[in-house]
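Sample pair:
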Amino acid sequence: MTSLSEVVFRLSRRPRSAPRARAALHALLVDWGAGDDLLHTAELVLSELVTNALRAPAPSDRQVGVRIAHSSADGLLRLEVSDAGSGRPELRDPGSDDERGRGLRLVDELSHRWGVSARAGGFGKTVWSELKAPDLVPTPSTREIAAIAVRPGQYIRVWGTWRAVRSVRTAHHATGGLSVVLALTEGPPLHLPPAEPVAVRGLP
């Protein structure tokens, strides 16, 4: 039976977003049972893709999208990074004094294959890389907890996929009731009753 496991999230256009993307990928792949070699390679590739996306000329309020997916059909781990910038990255042969141009060469060397595609909607692009990961088994422990117990950094199942939780707060209704507000890295915040069961992965 073919299965597809994926996680998507968005990053602000700030230098700290590259290490945040690496940390999220590391936590996810450890949860999926990845070995050290795949962890190291995937983190290098994603770091380069995110760094290039952050450097692409684009409005500062436009976020960078990240998708991490594994398909059991082909045994490939797919890393996608989308940005609103124009142009397409091209392989170059940087000289010894060039400070840029090495990242995409590294992606080319480490990837099983990689490429660039237009974003849905016609703005910007998505640069993707696929890594061989035949032994990866994305079967992380999933459990249900009350919404009030969800913590930032966990992933919750919503809208058919797993989304990272950016922040958690409570809000009072005019009627006196309490709700939990989960801000996600993508999509609108969720307003849930405190005792609402939520499927989570990630942090204990």
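The mean pLDDT is 82.
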